[in-house]
Structure formats: C-alpha cells, structure tokens
C-alpha cells in the first residue's frame, strides 16, 4: 500500500517539476536575452597554464592538493591546476556541487538497489536538487549562467523524473476478488497460483502473511486456500492474520468469502484450521459465499468442484490445469538397509535438467493411478541435473506396500516418474547463521541438501546435526557424505542416536547437550530445524527443546517439518 502512495506522490511531483522547469526556461530565455553569455572572466573552460599569467585573481585563495592546485578564482568559480599535465580546469562552484550531488545519488542507488521505491524517490530528489537549487544559486552568485549547461541541467532533471515515474508500477484499480493462500509446505500456494492463472484478469492473489483486515474490506469477494498443521493448527504464515482477525471488532461487511480447506483425513483434526477460519470470518461479519470445502490430500476432484462454484460467482468458465508434472528419468535406485526388510530405505536418483529448487524444497510425486493423490518427499540434493530422494518403503497393516513409496522403491534406471518441485518456504535454511539440524529416519534428507548448500556456497557458519535411527550397522544413511562434510569442516558436530544398537534416542542427546544448544541458539543466533515423523520422534524432540530454548527463540528460530 505504501508503494501505491509513493507512486501517486512521485507522479504528482513530476507534474510540479514540469511546471517549475517550464517557468525556469522562460526566465532563462529572458536572462539570456539581456545578460552576457559565458563566464564572468576571460579564462576558457580548459585552459593552459600560460593563460593564468594574464589573469588577475579577484579573491585569490590557493590550496595545494595531491596531483594539483585548487584555486578559488572568483565568487562563483573555482579552478584546478593539474601539475603533471600543466592543464587548468575552471568551473563554477555550481558544477562542483552537481558532481557531488551525482556522487551522492550514485551511492544511494548502490546501497538501496533492492528497494525500488526508495530508488525512485532518490532519483526524484536528485532531479529536484539538480533543477532548482543550482540555477537559483548561480543567478544569485554571479548574475549569469551558461545557456548550454542550463539546458542540459533542465533536460537531465526532467529525464530523471520521467524515468523514475515510468518505471513505477501505475496504481491499478483493485480487482473485485482476491485469492489468499496459507501454506506450510507449498501445496496451498501452488493450488492458489494455478487457480489464479485461470482468472488473473478478475482476481488478485496474496499470501495470508501480507493480509490485513483493511485489505479484506476492499474486495467484494475473498477466496481462501488454507492448509492445517500440527494438531489442527494454522500454518505459520497465517498466525499473525488470525490474531488480527480475533482482535478485530465484529461489524457487518459487504465482503463475501469462501474457504478451501486442505488437509489429510488421517489426522483427527481434519481440515480444522480451514473450519476455524471460516467460522471466525463469519463471526466478524463477513458473508459466506460458498460452503467451506474440505480437500483430502489434494484431491483434484474436490478442488475442481469448489472452483466450479467460484467460477459461477465470478463468471469464469475455464477449468484450471491443477497439477502439472514433469517427466523425471530414474538414474539409480539403491536400497541403503537391505537387512531391514520391513523398513527399507531407498536412495532414489532422478534426472531432470533446469529445475528451480532451494535447499529444503519438496518433490511432489504423482502415483501411477492418476486419480490418486500426490505424495511429497524432501529433496536430499539437486546437483548436476539430478535430484536425490531418501524414500522409506511404507508397509501397510495388511502387508501390502504403499502406493507411491512402493512405486519409487521398485524403480529401475531408465524408468520415468511424473513429479514437480514444491517450494517449502518455511523450511528454507537461513543463511549466515549456525544451524542445528535434528532428524530421524528419512528426515535426514533435507539436511543433506542444507549441508550441500553450505559446501557449494560462501556461507561457512557452523552446523550441528543430530540424527536418530535404529541400527548403526544397518541404518547409517549418507555415511560417506556426512564424513566428507565433517572432513571439510562444514559439519562441525555430528551426534547420532541408535535406538536399537545403543538404546539411545535423539531427545537423550539433546538433553545431554542442552547447555551447548542453548548457547548456540541464544548467543550465536543458531536456527533449529527438526524433520521426521511427528508421532514419537517429533513430539519428544519438541517437548525436550521446549525446556532448552527460551520463548523468543522458540518462536523465531525453530522450524519443523514433521509428518
Ligand atoms: C506435520 C503435519 C501436520 C499436519 N496436520 C494436519 C492436521 O492436523 N489436519 C489435517 O487435516 N491435515 C494435516 N496435515 C496435512 C496438510 O494439511 C496437507 O498435507 C496439506 O495439503 C498441506 O498443505 P500446504 O503444503 O499448503 O501446507 C498435516 C501435515 C503435516 C506434514
């Protein structure tokens, strides 16, 4: 919103500058007609030293500087003598002021290069300085001006402002509808983007973290795509908005809403956050346009049905292409623990060129039966166009193997898989700070990608890995890579808990090192990442960490990916 305000301000300012500069050109035209052209003394712009001898300095003050001599020639002019080339350079004080102004602007542009709106304001300020301050000073000081220089100056200032104003996005009138996503592992965001693609002319899109009550009120209709996390909780990105909404006064609003609630029927609290949000919005006076729709594990038919109802409201008749998958070719498939027949872990390597990926991201894999739901896997690495996954073959209660984990574990080189990378923004590792990574089983996968990121990048903050599995002799996944990370000094500490070999669990190790963990987190600003199954591992690790980490760090420096 501030950007819109700034855009308007800059555009207004541009008009003022046009007005001032036209007035100024008029005045200059008058002055050029009546005043002498040129400088107020007989020396030329670039002169030889000889010409100095013929010149009588009015108020002479001379300073020796490295490489030359600086002289104050008259009230409005300074000269610089380059001793090596024996050249004299004379300029008005104004010219020097403008060079300094230009240097300041360049510095501003360099330091603020990512903050585009500030750059625009910087350019506008520069242009106004260039245009207004200098000519007035020049007229006051010497009563004369150089016509060509004044033209360059006025044109320069106007071009700067024109460029600044043109590069700004013009404030658009708001669409009538808004689609908002609240996502933890990227599915809700992905879905909202696909839906928005089919209706972008009629609809804006926003992450719930940027949403305010005021924004909601501005739209006629707001469609939420939200997932549920933890034990029926909101994704992290939605917490602030929920608090704002809870604290808001209830008042009848014209804004209509609908919630598409993503979840997984295996959880008792199926789609709980979607339902909670829906009720809260209604309590606060918003009008429910379409009933809340539950979506079990990204069921495409459920999504299409909800979108059809949205389409009827908005007059859109395009069915969205919901899930687009790419072809990945299997390069290798290695079973890492063949002795553990009921919990086989596979290292699956897939080929795909030019994938957009960040450490921590997930790969959504489509089952062979197209009407089944996709499954998400942490990416262990993406290097040289190959993606690596660590896949546990899931065995159901009736002894059959899991649909997607079964398919992945039985792949052979040359086979093809349909998959797509999903952004997992809440689990992207923070750069330049130390990391404490806590994983169990296949929860090791994202941490391999974290460590590879540090191995290939400039960032060399310390890393500490806690890893838990059953048997040292069977389940020592990525052992070679971990040893290499240690040798290279990337992995500073490695603590492993082998529950069946040694009877030690990850929470025991955390407890033993509680002082050092606290010191890393509180004093060194380390971020803590936990990945693995929620039941058993995740719950016990979080309970232990709660006693170790102070509240502010628990809130800001802890990230979980528990499934
Ligand atoms: C750690 C974890 C906890 C979850 N808790 C719930 C839950 O309590 N209720 C539910 O319906 N779904 C739950 N889910 C399933 C997600 O809501 C579902 O996978 C959703 O599609 C994820 O969307 P997102 O990627 O946009 O965050 C959970 C998933 C994970 C990984």
Automatic annotation (TrEMBL):
It is an enzyme of class 1 (oxidoreductase). InterPro entries: FAD-bd_FR_type (IPR017927), Flavdoxin-like (IPR001094), Flavodoxin/NO_synth (IPR008254), Flavoprot_Pyr_Nucl_cyt_Rdtase (IPR001709), Flavoprotein-like_sf (IPR029039), FNR_nucleotide-bd (IPR039261), OxRdtase_FAD/NAD-bd (IPR001433), Riboflavin_synthase-like_b-brl (IPR017938). Residues 177-311 form the Flavodoxin-like domain. Its EC number is 1.6.2.4. Keywords: Electron transport, Flavoprotein, FMN, Membrane, Transmembrane, Transmembrane helix, Transport. The chain crosses the membrane at residues 16-35, 88-112, 119-140. Residues 323-430 form the FAD-binding FR-type domain. It holds the Pfam family Flavodoxin_1. PANTHER family: NADPH--CYTOCHROME P450 REDUCTASE, NITRIC OXIDE SYNTHASE-RELATED. This is NADPH--hemoprotein reductase.
């Amino acid at each position: 919103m501030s950007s819109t305000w700034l855009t308007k301000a800059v555009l207004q300012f541009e008009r003022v500058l046009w007005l001032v500069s036209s007035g100024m050109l008029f005045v200059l035209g008058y002055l050029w007609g009546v005043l002498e052209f040129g400088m107020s003394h007989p020396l030329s712009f670039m002169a030889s030293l000889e010409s100095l001898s013929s010149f009588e300095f009015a108020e002479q003050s001379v300073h020796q500087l490295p490489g030359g001599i600086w002289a104050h020639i008259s009230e409005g002019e300074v000269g610089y003598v380059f001793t090596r080339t024996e050249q004299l350079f004379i300029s008005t004080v104004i010219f020097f002021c403008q060079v300094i102004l230009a240097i300041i602007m360049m510095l501003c542009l360099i330091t603020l290069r990512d903050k585009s709106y500030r750059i625009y304001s910087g350019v506008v300020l520069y242009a106004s300085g260039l245009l207004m301050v200098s000519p007035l000073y020049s007229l006051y000081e010497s009563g004369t001006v150089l016509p060509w220089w004044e033209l360059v100056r006025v044109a320069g200032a106007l071009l700067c402002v024109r460029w600044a104003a043109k590069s700004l996005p013009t404030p658009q009138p708001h669409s009538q509808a808004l689609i908002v996503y609240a996502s933890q592992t990227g599915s809700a965001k992905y879905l909202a983007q696909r839906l928005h693609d089919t209706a972008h002319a009629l609809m804006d899109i926003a992450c719930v973290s940027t949403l305010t009550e005021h924004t909601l009120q501005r739209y006629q209709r707001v469609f939420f795509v939200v997932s549920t996390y933890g034990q029926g909780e909101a994704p992290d990105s939605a917490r602030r908005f929920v608090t704002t909404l809870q604290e808001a006064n209830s008042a009848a609003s014209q804004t209509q809403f609908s919630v598409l609630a993503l979840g997984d029927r295996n959880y008792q609290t199926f789609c709980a956050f979607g339902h909670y949000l829906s009720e809260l919005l209604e309590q606060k006076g918003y009008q429910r346009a379409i009933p809340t729709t539950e979506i079990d594990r990204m069921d495409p038919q459920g999504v299409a049905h909800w979108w059809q109802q949205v389409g009827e409201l908005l007059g859109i008749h395009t069915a969205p292409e919901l899930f687009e998958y790419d072809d990945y070719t299997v390069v290798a498939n290695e079973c890492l623990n063949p002795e553990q027949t009921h919990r086989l872990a596979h290292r699956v390597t897939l080929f795909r060129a030019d994938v957009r990926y960040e450490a921590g991201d997930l790969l959504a894999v489509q089952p062979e039966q197209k009407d089944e739901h996709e499954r998400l896997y942490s990416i262990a690495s993406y290097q040289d166009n190959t993606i690596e996954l660590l896949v546990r073959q899931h065995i159901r209660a009736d002894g059959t193997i899991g649909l997607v984990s079964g398919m992945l574990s039985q792949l052979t080189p040359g086979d093809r898989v349909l998959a797509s990378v999903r952004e997992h923004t809440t689990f992207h590792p923070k750069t330049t700070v130390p990391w404490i990574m806590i994983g169990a089983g296949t929860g090791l996968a994202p941490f391999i990608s974290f460590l590879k990121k540090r191995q290939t990048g400039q960032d060399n903050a310390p890393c500490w890995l806690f890893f838990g599995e059953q048997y040292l002799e069977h389940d020592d996944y990525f052992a070679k890579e971990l040893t290499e990370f240690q040798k290279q000094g990337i992995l500073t500490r490695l603590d492993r808990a082998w529950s069946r070999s040694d009877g030690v669990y990850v929470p025991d190790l955390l407890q033993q090192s509680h002082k050092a963990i606290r010191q890393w987190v509180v004093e060194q600003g380390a971020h803590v990442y936990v990945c693995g199954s929620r039941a058993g591992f995740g719950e016990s690790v979080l309970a232990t960490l709660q006693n170790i980490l102070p509240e502010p760090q628990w809130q800001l420096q802890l990230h979980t990916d528990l499934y």
